[in-house]
Every structure is written in C-alpha cells, then in structure tokens.
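Issue: ligand-bound run for coenzyme A - logging full I/O for the record.

Environment: standard queue, default settings, no custom constraints.

Inputs:
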Amino acid sequence: MATQKKRNKSKVRPALKKSARKVVKLSSARKASSKKAANGHGLAKASTKPYGKAGLALQGVRILDFTHVQSGPTCTQLLAYMGADVIKVERPGAGDITRGQLRDVPNADSLYFTMLNGSKRSITIDSKHPKGMEILNRLIKTCDVLVENFAPGALDRMGLTWEYVHKLNPRMIVASVKGFGPGPYEDCKVYENVAQCAGGAASTTGFREGPPLVTGAQIGDSGTGLHLALGIVSALYQRIRTGRGQRVLCAMQDGVLNLARVKLRDQQRLAHGPLTEYSQYGEGVPFGKAVPRAGNDSGGGQPGWIVKCKGWESDPDAYLYFITQAPVWEAICDVIGEPTWKTDPHFATPKARLPRLKQIFARIEQFTMTMTKFEAMDLFNKHDIPCGPILSMKEIAEEQSLRATGTIVEVDHPIRGKYLTVGNPIKLSDSPADVRRSPLLGEHTDEILIKVLGYSPKQLAEIKASGAITAPEKTEKAA
Ligand code: COA
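Outputs:
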C-alpha cells in the first residue's frame, strides 16, 4: 500500500509541476495583456475600486424587453438584477397579461407579475400604431438586445423581422423563447406544462403505478428563461469580437430536455440491461422500452428516497430526503442501529444493496420517524451523511439565512405594499444584485421617451395625442 502511494505521488508530482508551469505561463500572458491594455489595446486594466463598487456586471447593456407571462420575463429580470437597463414594452391599457392574473390584492399588480418583473422600467407602446412603430424603431437603434417570447410569427407580424431589426441596428441581438424549435410543432403556442410533457420530464416524473406528473418547479418557463439569459450574455460577449448581433433561440422543449438529460442517459442504458438503481429493479418489476417513472428514486448513482419524520401524520412536509451514499455506508449503519449491515454480504456493498433498497429505506424511516426532519438533518450531517429536509414554502419564506444572502428579498410596492420576491440566485462577488420592485404599467413611458429617446416635450404631447402610448378608451375620452 505504502509503495503504491509513493508511486502515485511520484506520478502526480510531474503532472502538478507541468500544470504549475502552465499557470505561470498563463499569468505572464495575463500580465502581458494587461500591459497591452495599459497601452490602449482593448482589454481593461484591473479595477482598483473595492469589490462591489466597480459597477454592475451588465451595466451599460440596454434591453428592449418584449416579453410576457413567465419564460421571457424570468430571463430579463435576471439581466436587470445583473445591472442591465431593461425597458419592458407593454400594450397600452392592458400590459403583460399576468398583471391581472391570480390577483390577491384588488387593483394591485399580481404577485405573478411583480415577482417576474422587478428592476425593470415599463413603457406602454401600441406596436400596431404607426407612431408606436416609430418609437420602437428608435428603441431598436438604442438597445443592445431585443428579447421576446410571443407566439411564433407574432414579432414578424408586427413588422419586426430579424432582417428589419438587423438592418436598423446590426449590433442588436434578437433573443426568443418559443415552445418548440424548427420541426413539426414550431408554430404551436406553448405553456409550462406542455413543455414539461414534450421535453421528457413528465413521462419520467411520478410513481410507476400513476399517470405522468408535472413538477411545481417551472422548468419549462423559468428554466428556459435561464437558458436564454446565458445565450444573450454569450452573444454579447461574441459581439465584442465580431461587432454584430445574432439571433438567440431557446425552445422550451429543448430547455426541459437539457434539464432532464439524466433520463435520456437512462434511456440509452436500458439497451444494455435493467436500471439497477431504480427501486423497480429491487422489486423485481421488469423494465419496458422507455425510461419509467422513478418515484423518489435518486437520479444519480447514489440511491436515495424520501422518508417520514416525526409529525408526518399531521404535517404534509414532515419528511426527509435520505441518500445512502456509499462512502458513508458504515456511518449510516451505526447511526440507525444496524451495525451488522456493515459486514453482512447482503448489505456491505453498493451492488448487494441495490435489490434491497426498499428494505433499507424502510429501516431508515423507522429511525427518522422518531425525530423531526431538522433533528434528523442535524444528526446525519454530523456524520457527513447527505440528506435534506422537505421544506414547505412557508418555511422557506421565513428562513432568515435566505434573506441574509439576498435569495429572498422584501420589496415595497406603491399599491400592493411589501412583498417577497426571489432575488438573484447567482452571486457575483463584484456585482451586487440590483433587486427592486416591479414597475407600474407605463410608469416610465415619459422618462424613456424624453431621456432615452430624446423626444422634446412638444413631441411627447403629440405622441400622447396620437394614441400610440395610451389605451384606446382613454384616447376616446380625451378626444
Ligand atoms: N402592442 C400591440 N400589440 C401587441 C403588443 C403591443 N405592445 N404586444 C403584444 N401585442 C400583440 C402581438 O402583436 C400579438 O398579436 P397578433 O397575434 O395579432 O400578431 C399578440 O399581442 C401576442 O400574442 P401571443 O404571443 O400570441 O399571446 P397569447 O396570449 O395568445 O399566447 C403564449 C401566449 C405564451 C402561449 C405565446 O406567446 C407563446 O406560445 N409564446 C412562446 C412560448 C412561451 O414563451 N411560452 C411560455 C409563456 S410563460
């Protein structure tokens, strides 16, 4: 053993040395490039300002936000948190349909809207009005990215084809969410659960005996919005080199499939035999041709399951996710009071345990039912055993550590008052998240027309009179 270790050491050393040499080379390359920067060759010199005081990551990026409902707004809200100036274009008088959906406070924008449109500015423009199109043209010239998630063809019907936008502003990135990519369903409208079903998540979620199940996490909408944000930031980065914009497309089906990739992995593994880590294997139930629903089985190589904790009879969330991670198997046996399982050939190895997972989790559950999920969490983690309490949304909303990190933020709204929103889940050490309340419908219309687009007060009055930025009813009354 000792010789083996020595051998490994001597093998590792030269490799380390080699990579160390690489590091030296890289850092001297960086030094050289920062010298270049100092000489005015493009790259910025390292800021000497304290971290968090050198501006936000996307400062200077202006987004023409044509998004609505959830997928697109998730994307642009994240970009706004990162410092982009997001100008949300909404239909006069109506706005994003979610302003009025699932309302909890009469006459106030719903939480559906407010939690997806924070840190943005709102301008109302009727894109089908000639004056409205004139304003949009000016916005296109001044913005870096146009983001939209209309039904297929809607943007083109407005006249804002890629060719048109690109001609007006060759640097403009046009980013879209659609339900499906090119193919048989490309013209279809799509909502969250349709994407979950078409992306392979629903057929692999739920219990084997039951129907397909959708998950509460909005992997179709918010998940695709996140994908789109990455596409936009990448396109902005490429534009530094090429000087030109490009189209970015994220299909919700593709986004869901990307998140469900482990199931496509399992589909291919099926050709080579049963999926032994699925509890159905241990139960002796044969596999069919497609990946089955796996209940609460872990999606990875370490078997896991949800077990009851004290109070489960009355508390629907008194449960714990428990993972029988192989490296801590002996600790698990000791803690749950089954020390003989450490050496018993039926339990001692991961392979031997696979057909007995049901029995193992039943024993673990017997143990966890004697304590609360939080007590279980504390106890198992002392032994480095991975597990997690099933947290209710109430518990999450009240969790102070999530407030402290800015993952949950309380903001104040002029009509609805204080509400909780999800802050930036991505933490940048030099770019604190800019999390502010959502705008009222058209709150920034005048400000954007005058300060961003340079219209004079007289022109603003003309635009208002034209009906391009006000609701038809109001225009009629005014006339
Ligand atoms: N001024 C004038 N008209 C406007 C406008 C404005 N400021 N903003 C939008 N509109 C019009 C559009 O021009 C379009 O009209 P048209 O159909 O006559 O061309 C219409 O409003 C928008 O329509 P659409 O996107 O079809 O809305 P919808 O409510 O019928 O469908 C979705 C909603 C979400 C199903 C659909 O937009 C969609 O499939 N989007 C892509 C996938 C997606 O993002 N889904 C998830 C949403 S969370």
